[in-house]
Amino acid sequence: MEIFHISAECYPVAKVGGLADVVGALPKYQNNAGHRVRVVMPCYDTKFRKENEFECVHWGHVKLGNFNFPFNILKEQTDKLEFELYLVEIPELFDRKEVYGYEDDIERFLSFQIAALDWIIGRNEIPDVINCHDHHTGLIPFMMLYCDKYQKLQNTPSMITIHNGLYQGQFGFDKLYYLPEFDLAHVKVLEWDNCINSLAVAIKCAWAVTTVSPNYLNEINYSANGLESLFNLVRYKSKGILNGIDVEVWDPATDAMLEKNYSLKNFEKGKQENKEKLCNLFNLDPSKPLFSFIGRLLEEKGGDLLPHASALALSENFQELNILILGSGNAVIETQLNSLLSDYKGNYNTFIGYNEELAHLIYAGSDFLLMPSRVEPCGLNQMYSLRYGTIPIVRRTGGLKDTVIDFGDDGNGICHDQASVGDICYSIQRAVDLYDDKKSLNKIREIGMKTDHSWGRVCQEYIDIYNLIISKK
Ligand code: ADP
């Protein structure tokens, strides 16, 4: 089967969060299972773009209302990612360092979607299925169905995979004229809550809708940032598929970013060496349990709870534990976290920013990983930490509920229900007690390390849905 994945992110080309990890791994496993898989994404000004060879396989112009943007389709030459990678180069809009966060993001991602479809219809072959990811690609299923120039794709199944339903890519009808020509009888399809809502459009038009965990699919029926009733209406074509992880990239036995590689056989010693390295780097005490957080410092991740919870846990257990935070996001949260540095010197530290290498070292060298999320469509951090023998401490929400079971129920982690400082601190206290009981601690670490969260196990579920929608053609 020929599968196209269209996405704003893909690891290692450009990564902001879990979307990149998924689009960098699932296609590889699908390719290795015998399918022809292509990933199409914008061409940002990234290290990957500079350090690799590309060939221009197509060029054209995107017409966006009165604007006209030249574009090139660049194919990565080596296929070293184990799938074919195509970058949509639109220099005026994407030759920038960041993936998101610009005033013209609507123009950028709409141009990207149009250029991708222009190229796809110009090829000799029509793909068997087009898998779109999140709202940045949400207008593609609409354009395939209704835009005159994409008529060739009307009968090609499209699927939208929702990695995060909080972000929906809304914009006003004043920009309707950006879209390629279509029969205005269908204009209502674009509307949700008086604006064009890219994610809602995809949910309406795609032949199948998937979320990145089964529990998240249940949750969005009553909490989806305004799209609840729509999700209820499309239940018949929806499925929650738990994300996998790339067990080649995330393997403590071979991970080149670690101080010391280790496996199930020697994890106690291996983790301790990584912990010592981390503690050296951040002036922490390696004899005490190390609690870490990695992620975007936003309310959805419970980031706003971290300053207070850290201060309380450290003052109640002063000198009994270390806390290390890696992340960036809300400037107020960042400042609050940094304001604790002087009070808890030697037991607390932060790295405000994004650092892939440090993240790997933290998964390996920490004892516990904090995930106090309010919303977590799947969450990959807990799966990485399990694989690295680090015990996740999670709020039972979204995919965290699907993947982490409390050790009191013979599980692999520590769970609480409320997004509150009290619940986080209670879990930290349980973890400190557990840390003193090395036999139980190691048993739980082993359970985590043995859990199979690989894409190899999950990838067939995607193929089954593709087959289902192809059979409806
Ligand atoms: P998100 O909602 O951000 O996509 P996920 O748990 O699905 O959350 O994925 C987060 C991914 O981003 C993981 O690979 C995690 O290690 C990585 N990550 C998040 N923040 C940082 C950071 N500041 N530095 C390095 N890696 C990070």
From TrEMBL:
Q: Name one GO molecular function term.
A: alpha-1,4-glucan glucosyltransferase (ADP-glucose donor) activity
Main enzyme class: transferase
Q: Which family does it belong to?
A: Belongs to the glycosyltransferase 1 family. Bacterial/plant glycogen synthase subfamily.
Gene giving rise to this polypeptide: glgA
State the reactions this protein catalyses: [(1->4)-alpha-D-glucosyl](n) + ADP-alpha-D-glucose = [(1->4)-alpha-D-glucosyl](n+1) + ADP + H(+)
**InterPro entries associated with the record:** Glyco_trans_1, GS/SS, Starch_synth_cat_dom
Biological process GO terms, please?
A: glycogen biosynthetic process
- Listed binding positions for ADP-alpha-D-glucose are 15
Query: Where in the numbering of this chain does the Glycosyl transferase family domain appear?
Result: 283-443
- Please give the organism: Flavobacterium xinjiangense
Tell me the protein's name: Glycogen synthase
Describe the function of this protein. Synthesizes alpha-1,4-glucan chains using ADP-glucose.
Keywords attached to this entry: Glycogen biosynthesis, Glycosyltransferase, Transferase
